[in-house]
Amino acid sequence: MKLLILQGPNLNLLGRREPQHYGARSLDALSADLDALAEALGVALVHRQSNHEGQLIDWVQEAGAWAAGALVNPGGLTHSSVSLRDALIGVELPFVEVHLSNVHRREPFRRTSLFSDVAVGCILGFGPEGYLMGLRGLVAHLRAAAAPGPGAG
Ligand code: DQA
Questions:
Q1: What is the Cα–Cα distance from 52 to 50, expressed in whole angstroms?
Q2: Which of 98, 86, 128 is nearest to 6 (CA)?
Q3: Is the dihedral of CA 100, 133, 116, 6 positive or negative?
Q4: Does 153 score more than 70 pLDDT?
């Protein structure tokens, strides 16, 4: 099973950007933690980060052809991007929405997500650990969805 890990604007700055909200772990370190868990779970990850909305949309569209699902932290686009939302819906890519910070404890404009109502699930406020929780949840969800239902066979 191949999964997309999609990181939105400014997440390349992890480790030095507002550590009180986002922690001290760099994006590379976080990605390595995810790869270690992926290996244990028997899945493969493709990591992508961009500061550009159109690039993120292109990657989502491409992933529609090869990915079973995605972990998505849209960064600030969480609160504004109809187009990235539309791309995920358009290619029917099941995804888990992850945020390092608990956006509900912050400025009011962060309380609206254009992704939560179409995500498989959402994890927020657990820092880098949330990505690991999200990966476990996504894989469990996809495996359950692929398993034959009761009475099959
Ligand atoms: C974030 C929360 C967003 O509001 C913010 O713009 C980010 C990071 C998070 O992971 O907590 O860039 O998605």
A1: 5
A2: 98
A3: positive
A4: no
* pLDDT value at residue 83: 98
Q: Smallest Cα–Cα separation from 132: which of 121, 123, 141? A: 123
The label of the residue with tokens 């990181």 reads 7
What residue type is 76 in one-letter code? G
Hey, what amino acid is at 54?
G
The atom of ligand 1 lying closest to the CA of 77 is 6
Ligand 1: atom nearest CA of 76 is 6
Q: Which of 21, 71, 104, 109 to mutate to test the pocket of ligand 1 (most atoms within 8 A of CB)?
A: 21
What is the C-alpha to C-alpha distance for residues 108 and 47, in angstroms, rounded to an integer?
A: 30
Which amino acid, 47? H
Threshold 0.90, pTM exceeds: yes
Q: Would you tell me how many other CB atoms lie within 10 Å of the CB of residue 138?
A: 27
**Positive or negative torsion for Cα 50, 55, 56, 60:** negative
CA of 36 to the centre of ligand 1 (A): 24
